[in-house]
Design goal:
Layout: H1 22-43, H2 50-55, E1 60-67, E2 76-80, E3 82-86, H3 87-100, E4 106-114, H4 118-132, H5 147-153, E5 157-161, E6 172-174, H6 188-197, H7 199-202, H8 219-224, H9 230-235
Parallel strand pairs: 1-4, 4-5, 5-6
Antiparallel strand pairs: 1-2, 2-3
Helix pairs in contact: 3-4
Amino acid sequence: GSHDSFSFYIDEASPVGPEQPETVQNFVSVFGTVAKKLMRKWLATQTMNFTSQLGAGIRYFDLRISTKPRDPDNELYFAHGLFSAKVKEGLEEINAFLADHPKEVVFLDFNHFYGMQKYHHEKLVQMLKETYGNKMCPAIFAHEVSLQYLWEKEYQVLVFYHSPVALEVPFLWPGQMMPAPWANTTDPEKLIQFLQSSITERRKKGSFFISQVVLTPKASTVVKGVASGLRETITER
């Protein structure tokens, strides 16, 4: 799986996402494009687009969706601090891979929604229907899902949706079926301890489970390495 899977596409020319705190909003309003270039260094957690990730073996995608302020088209975008690609384009890119590889299965985890009203959720559900149609596996008991089962039914997509909307749509798996405990640390040793302690949770039957093997920069980490970025400050170390 990949973390903030869409972040390769982050657009430095886009507005700041609505989930960002006022301090970040003020920082960008003062320093403009320079601020956004620095932000991208910390927000882009991937160097590959969806097609390249799929080719490299990624099958779980961590997706965060947002509306854009004052957007007359009410488009939906992937977002992580700054806006990324349009959701429709990303879904279609994944679907093109699935069409060429009918035995492959992907997990789409829609786990954060920003600035979304009921009609935005309805729009996203309709988008999923139009893009994947009968490829989507309806929500059942997790332990019943095997590759053999999915192949027999010709299902290729499991959609996890962290919103009450999931309870109203048969092909949306409720968010609690894909728990993802988060260590929230920059210390590798603390991360390993956290992952080891979460193994007991992973063994519980009835759901899938994510082990987030990722380090997360703190505000102080960003301030110290503001010009170097995530890769040099965290990843390479």
